Amino acid sequence: MRFILPIFAVLALVWGGYWFYGASRLEDEAVAWFAQASDRGQRATHEGVAVAGFPNRFDLTVTAPEIIDLHSQLGWRAPFIQVFALSYRPNHVIITWPNEQEVVLGAETLALSSARMQASAVFAGMGSRLDRATLVAEALQVVARDWALGLAEAQLSLRSMAARRNSYEFAFNAAEIGSDLLPDTGALVLDGTVALDPANRPQEIVLTNLTLRSGDGELRGEGRLEVAGDGTLTGRIDLRATEWQVFLTQAVELGLIRPEVAPTWENALGMLAQLSGTPDALSVPLAFNRGMMSLGPLPIGPAPRF
């Protein structure tokens, strides 16, 4: 027995040293990531970084983080964000977002609230390359200046592709999507792949399945998009809509199409539907070119940028 106690004491000292070394390194890396934001073309600030959880966990808390991309003016801010990992399995982390946060889209700020938003991520070995991840959000509400959107549950899954470096398969599902401007709830499914550049920005997006249901309408699509260095999109998504009038009405109600030009859109889309042989079904490409987008022959305007 007298030999066992010293062994346990040595093991405890070794484990304690490992934890404090790991905690210190994790805190330094988090602080350095924010400090190097300008090198990535970002502005990133925080009000504190701390690591707790001794002896079995690394619990990282960043207080009041704010990250803004200086080129696209896309950003995010929150009261805090937390990253948890078991100290004996640091390559598997749990990320927890607060119930209230904000997403910045240029001059527009979206207020996000949720009952739960959490992600599980596994990194390859002890490195920083993501192997797989799953994000779940429950009772999510998005409130903008002129509209609000809610959904009961959403899930995003990512898995690395062995055949392509820095590329991932993704699957996104959202249920019971509703808006203050629309009477019907809907559902959205997105499946495909995304290839990232060395800075982990999207470089190529392939949609193998886009399915949107709202009321009696259903929209399906697939296609491929390339993302240029300035964030502009090139490519097309081939869409097929049944009861396409539902989506036209919703686009007007959401302010995407002005009411005074809605009859022009309805006539043009109706003619395209007639060419397909089914008046209530519409097949048309959504095309992206040099920062602009169009639906078939109809110009829509500037396309979103990454």
Main attributes?
20 strands, alpha+beta, elongated
Characterise this structure.
The longest helix has 32 residues, at 4-35. Strand 8 and strand 9 form a beta hairpin. The chain is 18% helix and 54% strand. The protein has a 20-stranded antiparallel β-sheet that branches. It has helices spanning 4-35, 245-253, 262-276; strands at 42-45, 48-52, 57-63, 66-69, 74-77, 80-86, 89-96, 100-105, 108-113, 116-123, 130-143, 148-160, 167-179, 182-196, 202-214, 217-227, 233-242, 281-289, 292-295, 298-302. It folds into two domains: 1-145, no CATH class; 164-306, no CATH class. The chain is an alpha+beta fold and 306 residues long. The protein has three helices and 20 strands. This is DUF2125 domain-containing protein. Pfam families: DUF2125 (PF09898). InterPro entries: DUF2125.
Outline the secondary-structure elements.
Layout: H1 4-35, E1 42-45, E2 48-52, E3 57-63, E4 66-69, E5 74-77, E6 80-86, E7 89-96, E8 100-105, E9 108-113, E10 116-123, E11 130-143, E12 148-160, E13 167-179, E14 182-196, E15 202-214, E16 217-227, E17 233-242, H2 245-253, H3 262-276, E18 281-289, E19 292-295, E20 298-302
Antiparallel strand pairs: 1-4, 2-3, 3-6, 4-5, 5-8, 6-7, 7-10, 8-9, 9-11, 10-11, 11-12, 12-13, 13-14, 14-15, 15-16, 16-17, 17-18, 18-19, 19-20
